[in-house]
Amino acid sequence: MPPGDGVAIVGTRHPTRFGCVFADAAAKSAHQAGLAVISGLAAGIDTAAHKSALSAGAPSWAVIGSGVDVPTPIANTALAEEILASGGGLLAEVPPGTAVSRRSLLARDRIQSGLSLAVVVCQCEISSGAMHTARFAVVQQKLLIVARPRGPEARRESSSGNLALVDPAGCDPGLLAADGQIAALLESRRPVADIIVGSPEELAALWERLRPG
User: Which fold has domain 6-210?
Assistant: First the structure.
């Protein structure tokens, strides 16, 4: 388990430079503030967050949707080994040898949020698993931080989830696969995000306020 308090950094598997810059800044500034870096080992934003932590000399923790002995995707096997060698870890709810599944990926999203003080959505589509992590953050009363895309970035499909989460008019709960009491909770939040950041530089100041102790 990550020591102390952590930050989950999540997003699309197909980020633009906008999302990667936020993931890099979120990971490095969180480490500088004494917070553990948590992500999901997936391609895209997760990979960027783990690599940024490694480049800063920081361990990170990957919550995965398969057994810890079969990290997915296969393309990130070497990255998983680097995470372990750096003093970080691989975490899973399923037993060793378990293949990845939709259900276990959803569990991964829940665990990432549950282990963290805050969840940072760097960039994601409405269809992205990061929207599930955002929903779990709200339900688990974690701080939900969302990057606001502007200009051309705001017109990209890869940023559509961000726009929904930062909309001052609120967000259709269906976009976060929510119903019942959870849907009502989401409908009451305008915007869904607790904190909206317009630049990567804003993250460092935010982590200083969340610094343990």
Answer: Rossmann fold (3.40.50)
Burial code (b: 16+ CB inside 10 Å, e: under 16) for 21-52 equals bbbbbbbbbbbebebbbbbbbbebbbbbbbbb
Asked if residue 10 lies in contact with residue 151, where contact means CB atoms within 8 angstroms, the answer is no
Q: Torsions phi, psi of 9, nearest 5?
A: -115, 115
Q: Helix, strand or coil for residue 119? A: strand
Q: Output the pTM of the full model.
A: 0.95
Beta bridge partners of 143: 118
Burial class (CB in 10 A: 0-12, 13-18, 19+), 17: exposed
* Domain layout of the chain by residue ranges: 6-210
pLDDT tens-digit series, residues 161-179? 999 999 999 999 999 999 9
Task: Give the ranges where 37-144 is alpha helix by DSSP (H).
Answer: 45-55, 77-85, 102-114, 130-139
Q: How far apart are the first and last CA of the chain?
A: 20
pLDDT in tens, 59-83: 999 999 999 999 989 999 999 999 9
Q: Which two tokens stand for residue 163?
A: 């726009």
